[in-house]
Design a protein that fits this description.
Elements: H1 2-26, H2 31-42, H3 46-65, H4 68-73, H5 76-102, H6 107-112, H7 117-129, H8 132-145, H9 152-175, H10 186-209
Helix pairs in contact: 1-9, 2-3, 2-9, 2-10, 3-7, 3-8, 3-9, 5-10
Length: about 210
C-alpha cells in the first residue's frame, strides 16, 4: 500500500510540472488562441476546432517528449524555412483581420457570415502547423525539459502537458460565449479584430527578426 502511494506521488510531481509548463506556454496570446476566441464568440464549429488544436498540441508534445525536439534543434535550415512560411501566413491573416475591422458587424450578423467548416478547419490547421512558435514551445522546449525525467515519470510529464492543452482550448472556446453581450456591438468586434491583427503582425515580425 505504501509502495503504491509512493509510486503515485512519484508520478504526480512530473505530471503537475508538465501541466504547469504546458499551460504557461499555451495561455500566452497567440495565433491559435485569437482564432479560437473569435470562433467561440461566434459559436462556430467550436468543438471540432478546439479538438483540432488540442490534438495537434498533443501530437507535437508527444513527439517532443519522445526526442524529436533534439533533432529539430540541430537543423537550422529547417527552422528557417518553417519560420519564413509561418511569418508569411501570419501577416496574411493579420491583413484579413484588419480588413474585418474596417467593416465590423454585430454578433448576430457576424454569426451569419462565419464561414464553413472546411475553411475554419484549414485556417485552424494553418495557424497551428505554420506557426514556428508552436514547434518551439511544444516540441523543442517541452521536449527538452522532459529529459530530466525517466520512464513513467517522462510519460506523466507529457500527459500533464497534454491535459493542460485540452483544458485551455476547450475552456477558451466555450468560455468565450460569456462575452457575447459585449460583442453584440460592432465596435467591440472592431477592437477584437484590430487586436488580433496586431498580435498576428507582431508575431510575424518577431519571427523574421530572429533570422
Amino acid at each position: 500500500m505504501l509502495q503504491d502511494i509512493a509510486a503515485q506521488t512519484h508520478l504526480f510531481r512530473p505530471g503537475i510540472a508538465g501541466f504547469v509548463l504546458g499551460a504557461s506556454l499555451i495561455i500566452a496570446i497567440g495565433a491559435q488562441n485569437a482564432f479560437i476566441l473569435r470562433q467561440g464568440l461566434l459559436r462556430s464549429h467550436v468543438f471540432i476546432l478546439c479538438l483540432i488544436c488540442a490534438l495537434s498540441d498533443a501530437l507535437l508534445i508527444v513527439a517532443g517528449v519522445a526526442g524529436l525536439g533534439t533533432l529539430i534543434a540541430k537543423s537550422p535550415k529547417l527552422i528557417t524555412v518553417v519560420t519564413i512560411g509561418g511569418a508569411a501566413f501570419l501577416l496574411f491573416y493579420a491583413v484579413i483581420a484588419f480588413r474585418r475591422a474596417m467593416k465590423p458587424a454585430g454578433l448576430e450578423a457576424a454569426s451569419n457570415s462565419s464561414g464553413g467548416l472546411a475553411a475554419a478547419v484549414s485556417t485552424c490547421l494553418a495557424l497551428t502547423f505554420l506557426n514556428p512558435h508552436v514547434y518551439l514551445d511544444t516540441v523543442v522546449l517541452l521536449g527538452s525539459l522532459s529529459a530530466q525525467y525517466q520512464g513513467q515519470g517522462r510519460i506523466a510529464y507529457g500527459v500533464g502537458a497534454v491535459i493542460a492543452s485540452f483544458v485551455w482550448f476547450f475552456g477558451l472556446g466555450y468560455g468565450a460565449r460569456l462575452l457575447q453581450p459585449v460583442f453584440a456591438k460592432p465596435s467591440a468586434w472592431r477592437v477584437l479584430d484590430v487586436i488580433i491583427g496586431l498580435v498576428m503582425a507582431a508575431l510575424a515580425v518577431s519571427l523574421l527578426a530572429k533570422l
